Amino acid sequence: MTEARIQQVIGRRVWDSRGRPTVEAEIRLDNGASGRAIAPAGASTGTNEAVELRDGGAALGGFGVGRAVANVNGEIAAALHSMPIADQEAIDRRLIELDGTANKARLGANALIAVSMAALQAAAAARGQPVWRVLSEVDAATLPMPMVQMFGGGAHAGRRVDIQDFLIVPVGAGSFDEALETAARVYRAAGEIMAARGRLRGVADEGGWWPEFASNAEALDTLVEAIERAQFAVGQQVGIAIDVAASQFRDGGRYRLSADGIELETPALIELLVGWCLRYPIVSVEDPVAEDDDDGMAAFTAAVGERVQVIGDDYLVTSAERITTAAFRGACNAVLLKPNQAGTITETKAALDTARAAGWHTVVSARSGETEDVTIVHLAVGWNAGQLKVGSFARSERMAKWNEGLRIEAALGPAATFSGWRRR
Ligand code: 2PG
Ligand code: MG
After folding, report:
1. Which chain residues have CB less than 5 Å from ligand 2, an ion?
2. Count of other CB atoms within 10 angstroms of residue 204
3. Domain coordinates of the chain in residue numbers?
4. Reduced to 3 states, what is the DSSP secondary structure of residue 231?
5. Is the minimum distance from the CB of 365 to ligand 1 under 6 angstroms?
6. Shortest-distance atom of ligand 1 to CA 369
């Protein structure tokens, strides 16, 4: 029943895919339905994103969430009591006002996003519908194009190479299921190539192969080889995406590409990346320059934006306000949407709406620290975001999300459509 009201909000400490503590929230309603959700955590976080509340100190490397969990069980539970679960916006507004800071620092973005997502889950449970259906304004649904990591790097792989994510986009796939099979085959082929070269060293934080390469470009070359080995047409069936996460290797005013032994000024970094876009079948580039470099973002977008998707992640931090400014400047033409960067579901949706109004593409994304929580898959489907990035094709916190997409696609049957690659 949509009149169901919140009876109880429970916070608890659970653990994420890096073995770090994180916040789970559970919301119980007066009609017996309930929902729960877990906050994810980034490693390469943007300076302007909503901040997690960690306990600090020596225990658990300072990553404890005792205070955040206490905020859920205390202030937040009291503030949300008896609110109607169907009004997500009112719940999120109450959370934002209660926190009272611009960056969610007081109660913690980890506490807020867990509660906000749990409210969405509880609302769906109260209606007896999947979350995507509650969000969707239509009966049909469109499955997103997956963006799947093949090699980790940067902050997710001990900075073994500088570029953070080397991903593929199965641009030729006709369904979500086919897209995942494509990813599976390329992932496997990449592993075989690395094994044959004596370079297989396990996987990085998001399940991509550990990047045992002599240079950043070698990772791209290996990716092309893997696509060929898996018998796909390079570029036509499978494209490449990279997340440069450039803020992570900026040192002073320059970019230090340690794997290549070079230090570059911004124009030279842009030239290098534009060169890669010409040489490799790159369809998407994320955070090509540092998060505070508006001019660099605009210059890169001007250079390749006609053909290539240019995504702002650290640069936009899922903020409608920052998207508006970036769209005005012509910096980026797509946004990465991470609910915990914003802090609530409502703010994440506002970021998506703003990006869409600017004519941008939208990509719902997981964090490098994840759990079995699959809420973001429902956001991608329910909001018809078009693309989904949840890491690689290994480790269950990643596979849980891909598999949820398969379940939604199967449940929809003939009503399921697939986003495909919306070419620029
Ligand atoms: C990113 C994400 C996921 P993190 O930069 O896009 O790959 O990483 O969660 O560490 O910010
Ligand atoms: Mg990123």
Report:
1. 243, 313
2. 27
3. 6-128, 135-418
4. coil
5. yes
6. 9
Please name the CATH architecture into which domain 135-418 falls: Alpha-Beta Barrel (3.20)
Mean pLDDT across 311-330: 98
Query: 401 an active-site residue?
Result: no
Catalytic residue among 104, 338, 349, 389: 338
User: How many residues make up the chain in this entry?
Assistant: 424
pTM confidence score: 0.98
- 92, 344 Cβ separation under 8 angstroms: yes
225 labelled catalytic: no
- Distance from the alpha carbon of residue 98 to the mean position of ligand 1, in angstroms: 28
Express each pLDDT in 76-109 by its tens digit.
Answer: 999 999 999 999 999 999 999 999 999 999 999 9
* Rounded Cα gap, residues 110 and 117, in angstroms: 11
Nearest partner of 295 among 275, 265, 258, judged by Cα:
265
Both tokens assigned to 31? 């009609």
CA distance 89 to 16: 28
Of 323, 319, 392, the closest CA to residue 361 belongs to 323
* Nearest CA residue ID for atom 4, ligand 1: 42
Ligand located closest to 368 CA: 1
| Cβ of residue 340 lying under 6 Å from some atom of ligand 1 | no
Check: CB of residue 120 under 8 Å from CB of residue 383: no
Query: What is the DSSP pairing of strand 309-312 with strand 334-337?
Result: parallel
- How many angstroms separate the Cα of 153 from the Cα of each of 96, 193, 235, 264? 34, 18, 22, 19
pLDDT digits (tens, 9 = 90+) for 219-243: 999 999 999 999 999 999 999 999 9
**CATH annotation of 6-128:** 3.30.390.10
Q: Sheet containing 262-264: which strands, arranged edge to edge? A: 250-251, 254-257, 262-264
Q: Please say whether the beta carbons of 4 and 35 come within 8 A.
A: no
Angle ∠(320,324,327) on CA atoms, nearest 5: 130
Alpha helix positions (H), 203-344: 216-229, 266-279, 294-304, 320-329, 339-342
From ligand 1's centre to the CA of 342, what distance in Å? 14
SS3 29: strand
Q: Residue 377 and residue 40: Cα distance in Å, rounded? A: 14
